[in-house]
């Protein structure tokens, strides 16, 4: 699915005149390398993360920062802003997700933002059916007592609550609210929407 997602992104990116500047909020060089970044032509990718990431190719630049505050960049600084499975990791406050969305829309002339669908039956981080719909206290209890999904057991109650509350999945309506006017691409499995992509500013599709 990730490969198909990137192929969709490339179908939008390829017609753009080179060079192209891309800001990837929360991305890594490993991701772009696995998607065949060397074949993109004259593309410059700025990788923005809370902690500086490793890079080994001149097409990449690694910077530290927070997607909720891109004030270092002027409006329209990047041809493209790309973000893959990041906006759902900003914690329980929808206001923080709005800050990131607003900054993406401001600094990018185009954007492509993917996030898991809250209404998909299986929660993608804890890999448990309906986990996202359980009360916070139940989710914290489960994480404290069991290894759940990608997470090893977290006995400490405060640490477990922090991990549980750090993930806030979005519905399609919420994503539309964050990115007004954007088109929404739905990635489906067996007819069910597993994840959502908000994209705007592209001349195609």
Which features does this protein show?
Rossmann fold, 205 residues, globular, 28% helix, 2 domains, seven-stranded mixed beta sheet, alpha/beta, single chain
What does it look like?
- This protein has 205 residues and is an alpha/beta fold.
- The protein folds into two domains: 2-119 and 167-200, Rossmann fold; 126-165, no CATH class.
- The chain has helices spanning 2-13, 29-34, 94-107, 136-145, 157-165, 172-178, and strands spanning 20-25, 43-49, 60-64, 80-84, 111-116, 183-189, 192-200.
- Helix 4 (136-145) crosses helix 5.
- It starts with a helix and ends in a 5-residue tail after the last strand.
Q: Quick one: overall form? A: globular
Largest sheet: 7 strands, mixed
Q: What's the CATH architecture name of the largest domain?
A: 3-Layer(aba) Sandwich
Question: Going by CATH, what is the homologous superfamily of the largest domain?
Answer: Vaccinia Virus protein VP39
Q: How many H/I helical runs?
A: 6
User: Largest sheet, order of strands side by side?
Assistant: 3-2-1-4-5-7-6
Distance between the termini: 19 Å
């Amino acid at each position: 699915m990730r490969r198909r997602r990137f192929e969709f992104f490339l179908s939008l990116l390829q017609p753009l005149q080179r060079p192209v500047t891309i800001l990837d909020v929360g991305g890594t060089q490993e991701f772009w390398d696995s998607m065949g970044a060397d074949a993109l032509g004259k593309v410059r990718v700025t990788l923005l993360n809370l902690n500086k990431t490793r890079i080994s190719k001149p097409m990449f630049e690694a910077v530290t920062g927070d997607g909720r505050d891109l004030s270092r960049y002027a409006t329209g600084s990047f041809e493209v802003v790309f973000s893959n499975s990041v906006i759902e990791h900003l914690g329980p406050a929808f206001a923080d997700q709005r800050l990131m969305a607003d900054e993406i829309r401001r600094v990018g002339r185009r954007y492509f933002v993917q996030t898991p669908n809250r209404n998909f039956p299986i929660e993608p981080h804890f890999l448990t059916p309906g986990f996202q719909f359980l009360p916070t206290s139940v989710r914290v209890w489960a994480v404290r007592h069991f290894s759940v999904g990608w997470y090893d057991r977290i006995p400490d109650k405060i640490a477990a609550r922090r991990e549980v509350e750090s993930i806030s999945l979005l519905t399609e309506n919420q994503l539309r609210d964050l990115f007004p006017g954007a088109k929404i691409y739905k990635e489906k499995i067996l007819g069910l929407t597993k994840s959502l992509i908000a994209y705007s500013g592209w001349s195609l599709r």
